[in-house]
Amino acid sequence: MVEVRIADDEEKRAxxxxxxxxxxVEEQGVDEDLEYDEYDADATxxxxxxxxxxxxxxxxxxxxxxxxxxxxxxxxxxxxGEGIGRALMExxxxxxxxxxxxxxxxxxxxxxxxxxxxLGYERYGSEFEEAGILHVEMRK
Length: 140
Hints:
7-stranded mixed beta sheet, alpha+beta, Aminopeptidase
């Protein structure tokens, strides 16, 4: 059974970073210096577990009184299509709502935009490159 937890200690944060490394750096070829940034220290990190195994991760940053940003959503390739991404997004949206955040934005890789659209996010603006990958801004 998959459980999403807030990474409220160093062990869980390390699990989140491990998933991100496997997905973004190893699988997608993102430069490690771009993957980890100054926002990691202040963001709220989420980890999806199957038992003790970390299989998904994401982070959330509050941008203002009523705005937040979803970032670094990652699910291990072998576990995609099982609803793990949706569970991560629901956990982030629940956390955002508890903080009275009413608008969430994210930069979706274009190949993942339909996933976010099914969760109620709308696409804004033109495609742009980020870390060598085409993205689009989305909001809910």
